[in-house]
Amino acid sequence: MTELDRVDRRILNELQADGRMTNAELADRVGLAPTSTSERLKRLQKSGYITGFSARIDPHMVGLGLLVFVEVSLDKTTPDAFDKFSRAVRQSREVLECHMVAGGFDYLVKARVTDMSHYRTFLGDVLLNLPGVSETRTYPVMEEVKPEGPLPI
């Protein structure tokens, strides 16, 4: 992995703020020639610092107003059980993120659904049917205070 210099960090920060800006705009903001900026951008993508570009969609505008966090405990904590659960949870469209954690449970799931009724169906039909799930605890989000932030580069 290549070391990031001050300009690379500036490029990453600018792109986190606005990933749709043109190369010329980015070059102007970081104080480089467009050709140099384009070369750095390609290097940052090739080396894996930039993993992709996407649009941020307002979940409420597309009918996904309820955000929930769910603690998931498995009945066994073996490599095979972890692998089976990981493979299965990736198949759920409602699951935005899933993290294996240390502590009193095994995974923390972040999911988006339309409402509590949809969540009840998702819990019964999807989460509780994932391999090895023995227990869940759900935390519906009342207010999204800081939903997504840029990485502190």
TrEMBL record:
MF annotations from Gene Ontology: sequence-specific DNA binding
GO cellular component, one term: cytosol
Every HTH asnC-type domain range: 4-65
Domain of life from the UniProt record: Bacteria
Listed SUPFAM superfamilies: Dimeric alpha+beta barrel, Winged helix' DNA-binding domain
A biological process term (GO) from this entry: regulation of DNA-templated transcription
Keywords: Activator, DNA-binding, Transcription, Transcription regulation
Membrane-spanning residues: none
Gene3D superfamilies the UniProt entry points to: 3.30.70.920, Winged helix-like DNA-binding domain superfamily/Winged helix DNA-binding domain
Full protein name: Lrp/AsnC family transcriptional regulator, leucine-responsive regulatory protein
Organism from which the protein derives: Pelagibacterium luteolum
Lineage: Bacteria, Pseudomonadati, Pseudomonadota, Alphaproteobacteria, Hyphomicrobiales
